[in-house]
Hints:
Helices cover 37% and strands 28% of the residues of chain A. Chain A is α/β, with parallel strands linked by helices.
Amino acid sequence: MSNQPILEIKNLHAGVENKQILKGFSLTIYPGEVHALMGLNGSGKSTLAAILAGREGYDVTEGIVKYLGKDLLELDPEERAREGVFLAFQYPVEIPGVNSTYFLKAALNEVRKHKGQPELDAIEFLALVKEKVKLLDLNDDLLKRSVNEGFSGGEKKRAEIFQMAVLEPKLAILDETDSGLDIDALKVVSSGVNKLKRADSAQLVITHYQRLLNYIIPDHVHVMADGRIIKSGGKDLALELEAHGYDRIVKAAAVTA
Amino acid sequence: MSTATDTIEDLVKTEYKYGFVTDVETESAPPGLSEDTIRMISRKKNEPEWLLDWRLKSYRHWLTMTEPTWQKAHHEKIDYQAIVYFSQPKPRKDAPKSLDEVDPKLLETYEKLGIPLRERGRLAGVAVDAIFDSVSVGTTFKKQLGEKGVIFCSFTEAVHEHPELVKKYLGSVVPYTDNFYAALNSAVFTDGSFCYIPKGVRCPMELSTYFRINAANTGQFERTLIIADDGAHVSYLEGCTAPMRDENQLHAAVVELVALDDGEIKYSTVQNWYPGDENGKGGIYNFVTKRGLCKGRNSKITWTQVETGSAITWKYPSCILLGDNSKGEFYSVAVTNNYQQADTGTKMVHIGKNTSSTIISKGISAGHGQNSYRGLVKIAKSATNARNFSQCDSMLIGSKCGAHTFPYIEVKNTTASVEHEASTSKIGEDQIFYCNQRGIETQDAVNMIVNGFCKEVFKELPMEFAVEAQKLLGVSLEGSVG
């Protein structure tokens, strides 16, 4: 079991309306690993996240995506979620009038039903919420409000991490979770992510900036350009990027290609 | 893959559950309207002369009026001579004296609709008057209410038992000259509910009228009159359904509310008349005049409506704020699906000093539905320190429907404060995808989003009705936590 990858992407080609965005993207993630995917805007990072989560409107023209050995692309988005794929949104969506706690309870119970576990009632759920609030050292005020409604950018991102803590996914994809955060919010969010790291699950952290990686230590760092990974390495690769910028790596990759 | 569009299709296809017909022998007048028809109705009901005179005056006035055409909805011209104006389940030789003697088929009909009339079977705390086609078939809990001095009975009965109250208040809020449909109703109304809460009494239970149209080609013209005397309180609920038929049927009711000093009336409606099929064939034309008069000081009238049925809904439950410090409230959810059309809203007329009004309107359009909010806030010269707050939100599901807002504001006193907020939103693919990504399927996501949108109105409904309303919208119970 331990050497079965959680996620295996091979030679993925995909795009929207005849525009190719991913051009031969490959990546394998094993349990317990944290991968950072870095790249300039337009390199295809968010497209990859959207395709993994099952958003409509993308055409996959070539390649395979396996999640725990299954064909991920065959599943509806809600089935992927129930199987343990979690996307922390770059722009979390507001749902006015729908209480955050109610929403999260509905989500958790969908996962539990899928696993054949009994649904949690209100009291059991609140106990779980309390425990997670403590773990992440969060303010539970957000849970009393409507889903993301009127939240600041930082509050939205914190709420995403909180949902992740409650849902305990096997594969968490964090899409530019650091964008728009001040340094304090960044610390809170990344400490949450670190605490949620487990031996049987994995995280794919998508980011534009190196600064997030001061707080989240990845096992692997990948640099993405023009729809595929052009360089992979350890956490030092992120520092190299910080020092020299994307240009040098992109150019070097072009020479070797 | 399930998409938002699929779900909307599913919602559109959801069948109307109350579309059955009860096979019961009826006694009906031939179609057509004349003074003879009115005399016949009045004779059938054994009415006093003054009421027949009032009906005839109304009819003669109606003849001078023309059908209004300003509403934002289209329908074929109504042939008023093709409508049956009187239909009742055939009375058995010995007329029923209590519910036990009512035709079991009728009781069964209400059971099927979830409205058991036998008191044993009822949830404690709600008294029901059931109107089947043109007549009241039974009123529950009369005895218990009687002990408190509360009068709750069919309109016909009230005419006989409490003529002084009926005479005093009938037409006092909606005169027969008010509008085309009110004049028609005043001429031909057949039954309805009557309710009087005496001084200082808080009605010990919710009162409820359940309207059912059964017979074909029949118009339903009922009249409801509710009076809360000084310091009296009442909460009143109204529900409606009709069988599925290919022809359109007219429902032109009049509801009059009167609240005296410190009196309070809360009137809630869950309207689920047959809306027509997915091609827009058939359905009820719901052209209703509802108005409340806050006559006394510190009186209060609250209208809450959840309108999901009818081919066309056209009504403006209104408040005339005559007494000083009186309050009017209007909370509305209107849903139009398939080819349904709704032109609804309210009028708040401020006349007394320190009067205040609140309007919260939520319109939801799906399919080819057209949903209009039309509202008037009028501050008279005498209404010093009047306050109004209005909020009109529209939600669109799909791309073939429409939402429209027509607010009218007339202010003649400079101390007034009037606020109006409006918004239009579309159930976004983004919202649905966000829910999907948390394991919630599209149908549940739509329900959740719509329910969240209507929350401010649902919380104004009495508990049982709130549940029914949520079910009606196909909404799973929201807010059970937190």
